[in-house]
Write a structure and sequence with these properties.
Layout: H1 3-17, H2 46-49, H3 67-72, H4 84-96, H5 100-112, H6 117-126, H7 134-148, H8 151-167
Length: about 170
């Protein structure tokens, strides 16, 4: 029995002892990638096996990103930022090998591409324990949802607010 399976077996036994035997720690089967051109682990790493499909956030082709062009000033910092579509392809790779949590995180990240960096840093700080009230976090979630179309990220912030409330990690209202 490998280490991962041993840990899953132990956790299942612990949960059963706690009366929560409906919880399973079985490894889920790998997801099937979406039809119509989904990326799988067979195309990973993307830069080597699907480089023609990779674009930067400004639309530059991956092959056009060279050190010489960076040195010459032909490429700007924005030309080096990852595109939403590339993160979605990375999520598809994660799905294809059963890494659902990683895939979900990459999809949330793909949504956040449109959010300005300073706003992202503010959200990061607001999500630290004791920094925000529940309403502050719900307001952030509403802003992400309504102004940027970040539905998954907004739901994540709402869930964090609820968990912080349960664990007593919210800032006290003034």
């Amino acid at each position: 029995m490998d280490q991962e399976q041993l840990i899953r077996t132990i956790m299942a036994e612990v949960m059963k002892e706690l009366g929560k035997d409906q919880v399973t720690f079985d490894k889920p089967p790998a997801s099937v990638p979406p039809a119509g051109g989904g990326i799988t682990a067979a195309q990973y790493p993307l830069s080597e096996k699907a480089g023609d499909r990779i674009r930067t956030s400004t639309g530059k082709a991956f092959a056009d990103i060279t050190l010489a062009k960076v040195k010459s000033g032909e490429l700007r910092p924005d030309d080096l930022r990852i595109a939403k579509e590339t993160l979605v392809m990375q999520a598809q790779v994660a799905d294809s090998v059963g890494r659902e949590t990683l895939a979900r995180n990459l999809r949330r990240a793909s949504e956040l591409i449109v959010v300005p960096d300073d706003k992202l840093l503010g959200i990061y700080n607001a999500l630290r324990p004791y920094r925000s009230t529940k309403q502050d976090l719900y307001d952030i979630a509403d802003d992400l949802d309504k102004n940027y179309g970040c539905v998954m990220a907004a739901q994540f912030v709402r869930e964090a607010a609820d968990v912080y409330e349960q664990r007593g990690r919210l800032k006290r209202s003034e």
